[in-house]
Amino acid sequence: MTPRPKRARVRGSSCRRARPSNPTRRWRSSRRKAIVRRELRGPALVLALSASLAHAQLVPVDPDWKELTAPAPPASLRTQGLVPIDVEPSQLRWGIDPDSIAVGADGIVRYVVVARGEGSALNAFYEGLRCSSGEVKVYARRSSDGGWVPAAASDWQTVFNNPPVRHSLVIARNGACTGKVANVSAAQIQRDLASASKGRHLNDSR
């Protein structure tokens, strides 16, 4: 018999058969990659949004805003016919002189608020609310035995989480402000405050 010729081996050859294409596997792989990208993108968006909100809080609402000179409070103190203000958990009876409410050209809502205690104890404050920043300023104080006295510290202070001006927060939420702007008119503020005193209560959430 004639011997068969031996095939020459090619050294170093690494040829392998190509695996058949699997469309389902490729689809699953691309889907997993898309999910991973979406999960990674989520925290990044949250961080970006947080940064933008923090920046927005640092930027003044209106850097050119200036407060106008506050008008003088009413010469006579009104103690009857006040619009009641429900200030919890204060034991005092609070009310606003409806005729004293005014919305200034500078966006400040000014008013006289009266606080009654036991017996004849009475105090009154002439205040201004700046709705855009959630702040209040006390211009003057008055007691039952004297006239108006300018406030010693007349700086703007926040109405949030600030017990000494809790009544101001109630006034802002119940009628003086609409969001971050002053209500449309003194008459509308009076109506909203009167309506709130009949049915709504203070909500502590900001």
Automatic annotation (TrEMBL):
Q: Where is this region: Disordered?
A: 1-30
Residues of the CNP1-like uncharacterised domain: 62-193
Q: Which domain of life is it from?
A: Bacteria
> Which InterPro entries does the UniProt entry name for this protein?
CNP1-like_dom
Specify one Pfam family.
Answer: CNP1
Q: What is this protein called?
A: CNP1-like uncharacterized domain-containing protein
**Species for this entry:** Ramlibacter pinisoli
